[in-house]
Amino acid sequence: AADKINLIPQDFFAELCEQIIQHLNHKIPGVNTAELCQRIQTSGIEINVGDLAKIANIVSFLFSTAARNNLSTEELVTTLGNAVSALPKHAVQVIRHVWNEQGKSISVSEDARNMATVGQFVDIKWKLGVAMSSDTCRSLKYPYVTVTLKVADPSGQITDKSFEMTIPQFKNFFRQFKEMAAVLETV
Fold first, then answer.
1. How many CA atoms lie within 13 A of 167 on its CB side?
2. Spacing of C-alpha 165 from chain mean position
3. 108 falls in which pLDDT band (50, 70, 90)?
């Protein structure tokens, strides 16, 4: 991963680290590696979203472990120097700066440690479509609803999950949401 970190310009790596700290502080639901990767690629750097996600996971693990062990900035940098000699100098500088500025704000409560590893809902988008024809059927005129859920997994990576439903499936889906809303009204 160190060679991939070397590809990322310092400003983008700093933004990644800051988003990770915000995620660990529960200020944002996750790190949008797809969007950040696209911006890095637009600047002319060849990196794929999978590699960027791995880097985000490593840095997230680094910060959360440092918070759990209550490491000072110097202890963190010394540990990094001893453990990962291949880490680029600019990355160590960014990690030092971000940890020095915001590291102590990471709250690592027992509840957070024991919390189930469940993703967090971020956003939903839907659209209504009609399939007009296919190679096996000339006249379908088949309506469907496409739903895209934006979800942050427990590590903070934001992903899109899409699925299609027939109109009867959508009506059932809608009915279940109405039932949930009614139950929530009683709470």
1. 7
2. 26
3. low
Tokens representing residue 139 in the block: 């006249």
In the prediction, which pLDDT does 175 show? 92
Identity of the amino acid at 8: I
Cβ–Cβ < 8 Å for 23, 60: yes
Contact at 8 Å (CB) between 127 and 165?
Answer: no
Determine which helix (DSSP H) or strand (DSSP E) holds 24, and give its type and residue range: helix 10-24
Burial letters for 34-51: b for 16+ Cβ neighbours within 10 Å, e otherwise? eebbeebeeeeeebebeb
How many angstroms separate the CA atoms of 107 and 26, rounded? 9
What does residue 151 show for φ and ψ, rounded to 5 degrees? -130, 135
Average pLDDT, the chain: 82
Buried b (16+ CB within 10 A) or exposed e, 63-100: bbebbeeebebeebbeebeeebeebbebbbebbbebbe
The closest of 106, 26, 97, 121 to 66, measured between CA atoms, is 106
pTM for the full predicted model: 0.63
Give the bridge partners for 93, in sequence order. Answer: none
